[in-house]
Write a structure and sequence with these properties.
Layout (H helix, E strand, L loop, with lengths): L3 E4 L17 E2 L8 H15 L2 E6 L4 H14 L4 E6 L3 H14 L6 H12 L3 E6 L12 H6 L7 E6 L3 E4 L14 E6 L15 H10 L4 E4 L5 H5 L4 E7 L3 H9 L4 E2 L6 E2 L22 H4 L7
Parallel strand pairs: 1-2, 1-3, 3-4, 8-9
Antiparallel strand pairs: 5-6, 5-10, 6-7, 8-10, 11-12
Amino acid sequence: MPTAIAVTSRELVLPPPDGQTPSAVVLRPPEEQSLDDALAEVGALLEYQGYLVALYPAASPPPFIRRLHTVRSVLESDRMALCPLELPPLAVAVIARQLRQLSVSDFSPGVLACSARLLAHYVHAGALLGSVARLDRVPVSLTSHVKSWMPGAQFGVLAHPEPQLVKVGGGGALPGPAYATHMTVARGQLTSHGHGTAPRDDWVTGALAPSWGVGDVQEVPLPAASARWWGTPKLIEFAAAIPDLSVLYQLVASVRREECHWCGFELIGDRCAFCSCPVPRGDEIPALTQSAERPALTSR
């Protein structure tokens, strides 16, 4: 059986790209499920699947994060990996879908869990916002704050991989990926302005996606946590990522593997996803080079 992938809301379970990609488990927050029920649910899942990789935005509410750690601790399970990602909610959903694709491959649970951080390097995540007045996760200049109070002002914001902000219609552009991607889009309470000679075009799908050369655009429901992450419900969130399973597999397979000296899981990168133990450096185990952690992708 493949390793189970879990997320923290139903909106983070994106439609599968094919009939072979398994779905994800939804772990409910404390206000929706008692601790006893959560323990029973995760315990049964581990008994059936063997291993569980739980992805969640690092900015999730603290009570929910504590619940995840409590469940893992009470079950005394070394087969449950908790993987927080410093990404907006929709990007976390995209990474979760990629892991679901890879979960049917021959990667071990440790490598699969560690690959979440690797694949995050190749996600371009951002949003079109109607206001940046309460945006605190991306640097915002005083000028942009002032402009956000102007009626009709809209901003294109890139949160990852490099934070950047442009005023829509102001001549600026958000840097896109240098490799083939598909874009996932989720609409909040914002009506996008047009761009250029097509005033009714959506800026995200009509201007940004073509400028980035994305191969396909898929619209999904907006994650419940997105408005809080971006500081406003008036947004259109987007994430461009690699869709091809063979490319994803190649990326993960190209990284040198280690064995965790604490729990014994196979891993890639600088720490174990199951026990969070770092890879020893220096004379014990040669450090991974940056190029090994982030293999280059340059072709479209």
